[in-house]
Give the backbone structure.
Amino acid sequence: MDYRALGLKVGLEVHQQLATRKLFCGCPSRLEDETSGVRFHRRLRPTQSELGEVDAAAVEEARRRLTFVYEAPGNSCLVEADEEPPHPPNPEALDIALEIALLLGAAPVREVHFMRKIVIDGSNTAGFQRSALVALDGSIDVGGKRIGAPTILLEEDAARKVSEAEGEVVYRLDRLGIPLVEIATTPDIETPEEAREVALAIGSLLRATGKVIRGIGTIREDLNISIRGGARIEVKGVQELRLMATFVEKEVSRQRMLLDVAEELRRRGVTGVPADVHDVTGAFEASESKVITAARAKGGRVLARALPGFAGLLKGKLGPELAAHARIAGVGGIFHSDELPAYGISDPEVEAVRKALRLREGDAFVLVADSEDRARAAMEEIGPRAEAGIHGVPEETREPRPDGTTAYARPLPGKARMYPETDVPPVRVTDDRLRRIAESLPERPEAAVPRLVSAYGIPEQIARQLFEDGYVREFEAIAREFGEAREAATALTYTYSELRREGLPVDEVPLDHLRELFSLRKAGRFAREAVPEVLREMARRNVRASEAAAALAVEGIPREEVVEAIDKVLDANADLVRTKGAAAEKALMGRAMESLRGRADGKVVSEVLRARLRERIGKGEERKK
């Protein structure tokens, strides 16, 4: 697909947690598996901005009529509960944000003012997020192309969603208040792969500071995507870098589909959608549809809305869009005529609905079965979205899904959600403060990668990966102290990636535990091959390397025991030795290493195995003579 010909424009908003305490109190920035048992409930409502306007996204969230339950763990306080005013902003967090701004070549503001950004989805107990502009007009070079970073913000992270039920959402306050830096780029990204590369470059620069939190969920990207004739769509909270290009590709396909649908509706002469909603419950007296039967059993109704000229444009197209808006009212979903008869709804029932709505060929309809209040509210949500389908792509915020698709979340928020924060005084940014930060800026990745390759003899790709994952500091500390550069690089890139995929918190292993691991390895306490297993145990149980090695019984063994173990492997595979001779060495090596479970160095095992195998082959040949 020629994305440039389609006029693709992508901008990123990169949100990175900072490695310091929370922004407006003294609580630590860490997640908790357990809570203190304190729980409280809130209902949130939209308010006017300083301009007297109410944000559309806030209005829609309010229509969901949700109750929010908050769990308060040990690393939260009355500030997170919105029962105590915020403390002065964390100066270390501001210093880190300014350092990042200087690395991006941005111009820091001279006075930092925090604003309130209205958010009533429950992710903040106060109904707003605190955010402050720190710097302007930065940039980053990616593949020889300048990508602008017009704004760098310092803000507080949101509460963590724990669970959802009908009419209720449960949040945990451990994440609320963790300081974030937000870097917004210009919409100069022109391909899905370029979006991934820009996110990777910004992430590497952030980790180069050594002052950001690592691990899943600590960095999140919002994607702002549009094509020519389409509209800006925000895909909010992307965490999987490997899926970033996929999100862009699928959103481009979705916008093209919506533009094609709009063009077809205009060709058919469709200019609007009737507002009338009809009660067609009587058409389903003997329905076999489980959804309709369940709704009627509770006293609910079946409501229908005509969509003249929409036939054939709902299934796999506008249908999912309409269903997403209907769910705002709390219904489970909708039926539409493109997919009927099905789901227990018969041909006669479809015809009865068409007759009640006075539909003609080429017309469509939607059905909702629920309590009358909910069903009517759902129909009210469906109408404007169907109307928008005539014009093309409506601006909106969408949530990412694990398969690279997205789902409707709410309208795109605007400036009406901002107003000044009156509880936090402005912070002056002095020349002395900027000079102090500028004098200790970290090495940039583009300069450091060649140095690492030259100094430690590691491949360039591995050096880049160390930056991308934020492990340069740990790598250099280990390489300098123990001289195990390649081994350390492999462990911190390849092994760590494998352990992350297993869901292990490997990024929480402290540097002193890693130093002990390589100290034991250099002392010959266990073989190189045992390093991944020891790391796995360290991350799984949050223990030191010595305890993990002892638990795994990978303590190094004398050469005599290696010989004994290999002889047992040769005995068990006598037929393989007899039939393949020296060619069996590769297969036997794998079995020997498995038998020894990392308790002997691979080089020693290989030497012993080759010698013992040759000896056996020689004895076999003598017997033949």
